[in-house]
## 1
Amino acid sequence: MPKQKTHSGAKKRFKITGTGKVMKQQSGMRHHLETKSSKQKRQLNQEQIVPEVDAKVVRRMLGK
């Protein structure tokens, strides 16, 4: 049986931590940055944990 291929869109957007949680980059850091405060930009630039409901699908796309 052939190997399962990793979803190429998912491997660019998600990463799995050592404890098995799925991380993603938050939205809102692409444009209109001059109107946002420094605090808001700093908080948006942090990675976020994907909810477990969605993480199950992401893990399947990543082959984990």
## 2
Amino acid sequence: MLIRHVLLLAFLLLSVARAASAPLVVNIAGDLWTWTGAQGWQQRTHWGGNGPPVLSPDGRRVAYASVAEGSLDTSRVTGEATNIWVLDLTTWKATRLTNQPAAVSSGQGVMRSTPAWSPDGAFLAWTQRPQRALGGGRPSEAVTLVRYAVSSGTARVIRTAVPDLSGTPAPIGLLWGTAGLVMLGTAGPSTDNTSTYVLDASGRVVRRVGGAGLVSHLTHLGSSAFLGSFFDEETFYSLSGRAHVLRRPGTFERLVAVRAPGGLSVQVWWPLQGRDHTDCSLLRSGRRLHTWTCEPAVYGGPVFQDFLDLAYDIAVSPDGGQVAYAADDAIFVHDGRGPRRILDLHGRSMNGMVWGPAEFRVP
């Protein structure tokens, strides 16, 4: 019995130490940087053509799309040839999962979306399309999905039944939650008429949700998953197959640490009618500690991002003890007692921020 208690205590101490040392990962001007209170800032990539970091469910790796070597000079044009990479946050080893040629002729490469992790972390998924369709070739009629098995390193290319947004010169973004894979597609002959599709892991469409503009991150209410509307901020659409729409005046969500739901959280108030901004509030035990203006992050880096990549520049540490956020051209960390400015951006772009596993929830 004593040995069991000692082992349990050692495990808990190790978990706390790991959570305390988990790095904040930020894409600054196209490169990935990490920050910890002990080590400060460390630059982890030196390429300058990377997309936002996407944290694995266990918090140990980030996946990201990166402009292929030889293509960066022309990457300022939306939708360039890209590869998918994974960066280990312990060893700092970066592994390339796709094999884009080093020298890609203009318009001949493969464009890939920002990747998404499966809920169990065993798979990555992204969509892709050839650049040559932009040069006058026949556009794709359906979204092409890639499902990559992390353990075996094998990829399955799936031609889905989701009608491609052929008027968009880039791959379609996607989200992956317990309700399935979520992506945008056309709902009619006009590319302006978009819809949201939910797919199972094999790429089969299981339902179509709502209408145009369902472009927000996934949120949760108990065991149900919802998708917010970027153009109708007080609406959430259920992805579980139920027909009801959750509407609340002044709807808000909370970003909470998955491993420490009782720690600090961020409450995001969608803008009410007549307001042109969103407020974020830092909470502990229901008590509001700090409020600032936060907006959906719209990125203009070399890796294309569509509406499904929109989120807020907020990150919660895995132990729930700290919250990082961007405001006033700087990055701050708040521990519940007060904010600390940890970096001045000096006009540099910020292309995503993650810390520990977290999720948005509708209270």
